[in-house]
Specification:
Chain B: Keywords: Amino-acid transport, Cell membrane, Membrane, Transmembrane, Transmembrane helix, Transport. The complex is a heterodimer. Chain A is α/β, with parallel strands linked by helices. Chain A has a single domain (12-278), classed as Rossmann fold (3-Layer(aba) Sandwich). Helices cover 37% and strands 24% of the residues of chain A. Chain A has helices at residues 3-8, 70-77, 100-105, 123-129, 139-144, 147-166, 182-195, 212-229, 240-246, 264-268, 271-278, and strands at 19-20, 26-27, 30-41, 44-55, 59-63, 85-90, 93-94, 108-110, 200-204, 232-237, 249-254, 257-262. A six-stranded mixed beta sheet of chain A has the order 8-9-10-5-11-12, sandwiched between helices. Chain A is globular. Chain B is built from 14 helices and no strands. In chain B, α1 (3-36) runs antiparallel to α12 and α11 runs parallel beside α14. Classes of the chains: A alpha/beta, B mainly alpha.
Amino acid sequence: MSLAEQVLGHERDNEDGGWITADGRQIGAVMMEMKNITLRFGGVVAIKDISFDIRKGEIRAIIGPNGAGKSSMLNVISGFYNPQEGDVFYLGEKRPKMRPYEVARQGIARTFQNIALFEGMSVLDNVMTGRLNHMKAGVLAQALWKGRAEREEIENREKVEKIIDFLEIQNIRKKPVGSLPYGLKKRVELARALAAEPSLLLLDEPMAGMNVEEKEDMSRFILDVNDEFGTTIALIEHDMGVVMDLSDRVVVMDYGKKIGDGTPDEVRNNQDVIDAYLGVAHD
Amino acid sequence: MPDQLLFAMEVFLNGLMAGVLYALVALGFVLIYKASGIFNYAQGVMALFAALTLVGIMEGQVPFSHLINAVFGTEIHHFGWHLPAVVAIVLTGVVMIALAWAVNRFIFRHLVGQEPIILFMATIGLAYFMEGVGDIMWGADIKKLDVGLPQGINTWIDESTYEIFGYGFFIDNLDLWATGIAAALVIALTIFSQYSKQGRALRAVADDHQAALSVGISLNYIWVLVWSIAGFVALVAGIMWGTKSGVQFSLSLIALKALPVLMLGGFTSIPGAIVGGLIIGVGEKLFEFAIGPLVGGATENWFAYVLALLFLVFRPQGLFGERIIERV
C-alpha cells in the first residue's frame, strides 16, 4: 500500500497528487498552500505556525471549537488579516501582502459569519456586485451608458440570473435584502460570492444559526456548487456532523494550533481531536 | 385673484429657484457622507474654489501671481488669453478630480477607521486650507463670472402671467437655467448610481465596507470617485452662485445653509437633499414675505436654522433619512 493510500484511504492516480473521490469527482493539484502561518493580535496568538493546503476541486473544511482561530485563518486566506509570519502560496506563486479587494480580484470569493450583505439593495443588485470584477467598461463609458457597457450589463445579468435560479431565490430577486429572513440572507450571500465565478470559495460558518431544514438545504447547495461548477470550497464550521458529510479533507484547529488534518474518518478517530471536542481531564 | 396671493405665488416660485442652489450644495454633502461617513465641511469651500479656478482659467490669470511677483520682483498677472467657457469648465473639472485624489491620498487615507469627529475636524482644516490656497492662487477680490448663461427677467413668463393674472411674475432666466441644470444633474447621478458598474460599487461601499472589499471593490478608488463627483457638483453650484452674485469668499458660507437642508432631508438621502433644499428655499422666502415685515425683516438669516432645530426635536433622522433603531 502506497503512502497516499495509507493517508487518504484511496489511491492517488494523478502526477499532481490528486485523486478521484468515491463519488467520482476529480481532486486536482494544490491550489493554495499556507506555510507556517502565525497571526498575532498584540500579545494574543490567534494562529500558531499552521500549514495546510487546499487542492483544486475539493471541499476543504476547517473545524475547531469556538475561539480556535478558524475565522482568523479564513481572514488570512481572504486578505482581511496579514499574518506576521509564514507565506501564502496561491496557484504556485507566493502571494505578496495584499488588500482584501486585490485577493478578491484574484478569484477568491467569500461569505461572512455574520452576513455582510448590502442591506439597502435588492437581491439582484447584491448578486450583481459579485460580477463587478468581470465588468471592464470605464467610468466614462458607464456614465454615458453606451455600447460596451450595455452589452456587459446584459451578459452579466444573464450569468447572475443563472446563479439565482441555481440557488432557488428567483421569487425574492427584487426584494430588498434587509427584509429577508436569516436563512435566505445566507443564501443570497452565497449567490453573490458565486457570481464572481471564483476559483476558490471561502464560506465562514455557512450553517451557523440555521435550523435543520435550512442546514440540509445549504449542504445540498454547497455540494451542488462544487459538483456543477467545479468550484474549490474551503469552509469553516463548528458543527462536526455537517462537516464530516460534506468535506473531502478536514483541518482541525484548537487554541490557534493545528491538531489534525486528513479525511473525515481519520479526523474522527484522532485522539487530539476527540479530546478537544469532548474535553479531557488534565492531571 | 387678490394681489397678496399673487405676490406670494411669485415669492414661492423664486423660493424654489433659490432652493435649487441650496440643494446642489447639500447634494455634494450627501454623496460624500453616504460613501465614506465623512461629513465634509469643506463642500462649500470646494464650490468657491471651483468657481475661483474657473474664473482664473477663463481669464488666463496666472496662479500664485502675487506670490511669484513678491518673490521674484516680476510683474506677471495674466497669460494673456481668454478661454471659452466650455474649455475652462472641462479644465476646472480636471482640477477638481486632482483635488479629490490629493484629499484622499494625503488626508483621508491616513484617517481610515478614525472617529467621525476626527474626520469632521479634518474637513474643517481642509476648508480653511483650501480657502487660503484659493486666496493665494487667485486673489481675494470679487470676480465676475459669466459662462454665457442668460440672465435677467424671463419676458415670456412675465408676459404670460400678466395676461392670465394681470400681474407679471419676475423670474430670473438664470434661476430657470440653474433649476434645469440641477434637475439634469440629479437625474444623471441617479441613473449612474442605479445602473452602472461604478454606481453599483459606490452604493455597495455606502452600505457595507467589508462586503464591498470581499467582492473586490477598492475603497480608495470609490472614495476618489465620490470626491470627484462631489467636486463636480461643487463646480456646478459654484458656477450658479458665482454667476448670480459674483465669485467672492462669502460663497463658502453657503455651506452653512446646506446644514439645515440636510437636517430636513436627512444626511443619507439624495432626494432628501433636493426636497430639503426646496423647502428651505421656499420656506425662508415665504416667511420673509409674510412675517418679515412684522418683525423688522432679515428673517432669512435665521429661519432655516430654526426650522432645522424643530426637525431635530421632532424628526431627528430628517424627512428621508435612515431611521436609527438601536437593537438591545
